[in-house]
Amino acid sequence: MPEISLNILDVAENSVRAEADHITIDVSADSAADRLTVLIIDDGFGMDKEQVAHVIDPFFTTRTTRKVGLGVPFFKLAAELSGGSFEIDSVKGEGTTVRAVFGLTNVDRMPLGDISGTIKTLIMMHEDIRFTFRFGYDGNAFELDTAELREILGDDISFQEPEVSAYISEYLEENIAEVLDGKTI
Amino acid sequence: MKSLEELKKIRERVQGQINLREDNDEKQTRVVVGMATCGIAAGARPVLNKFAELVQEKGLNDVVVTQTGCIGMCRFEPIVEVYKAGEPKVTYVHMNADKAAEVVEKHLIRGQIVSDYVIPEV
């Protein structure tokens, strides 16, 4: 995986498969603490401790269910290689929170990459799931909640309508650029 | 900064057009992009987005773009499968956004399979 955004897309797909109704993706950079934190929070069916141990260990996969793969280990490795940390909190029947912390200026941190592409893909492909996306850099932040978009659009206009999908792309790109204010992560 | 106000205007414009369109419950063609770890790592995201964008832009109302998990041939990712009603499945391999645009133009619109990108059925 060449960018953090692709890891986010991959791991968020696990939340989709866990039948989540609401998925929150929070990306925030803090230059004082030199950290880039990614949170993926879902209200899907969750995992017990043993299952969590399975998903973070690529060599423990028994492959009988094919639920487990390399996605989570890739994400964990990417975070740890940059001097960060990785953890999964999960409660069976309640949901899962994945937290990856990266060293913001660490030379081994992969770039964030096309985060708006990732969020757009998730929103378009899973219209019936509510996504909350938060993006912050130091003091600046913005939030997109698809429940708000749905409320404005009503039930019969798809996010895939050309005008709507173009709007979502621009909305994400412009607001992310504004939060970054010329900086690149 | 773009505001949600703009979306309200879009709703008013789009609402009228939607009612005129026929119901597309019975889609004729499915474009399926492999979006498991292997596909994503190999570059499936821009492929999926290009298909979705062009299908909407060109008004291909009988085409639905969707995603699936691992198709089982990870070394050929990104993989795209095209299912047209009454025709055998066509599997495109090593796709990228440019090839996706070509498949939309030739296969989806004109009905010509782009054989250069197809992996033969064994």
Largest sheet of chain A: 6 strands, mixed
Unreliable residue runs of chain B: none
Q: Architecture of chain B, according to CATH? A: 3-Layer(aba) Sandwich
Distance between the termini of chain B: 53 Å
Number of domains of chain A: 1
Q: What's the tally of helices of chain B?
A: 4
**Strand percentage of chain B:** 15-25%
Strand coverage percent of chain A: 25-35%
Could you give the order of strands across the largest sheet of chain B?
Answer: 2-1-3-4
- The total of beta strands of chain A comes to 6
How many individual β-strands of chain B? 4
Estimate the global geometry of chain B from the Cα principal axes.
Answer: globular
| Integer average pLDDT of chain B | 88
CATH topology-level fold name of chain B = Glutaredoxin
SS-derived structural category of chain B: alpha+beta
CATH class of chain B: Alpha Beta
Summarize the biggest pleated sheet of chain B.
4 strands, mixed
Low-confidence stretches of chain A: none
Give the N-terminus to C-terminus distance of chain A in angstroms: 16 Å
Task: Write a brief structural summary.
The complex is a heterodimer of chains A (185) and B (122). Chain A has 185 residues and is an alpha+beta fold. Chain A has helices at residues 4-17, 49-56, 71-81, 115-125, 146-153, 162-180; strands at residues 22-30, 35-42, 85-91, 95-103, 130-137, 140-145.
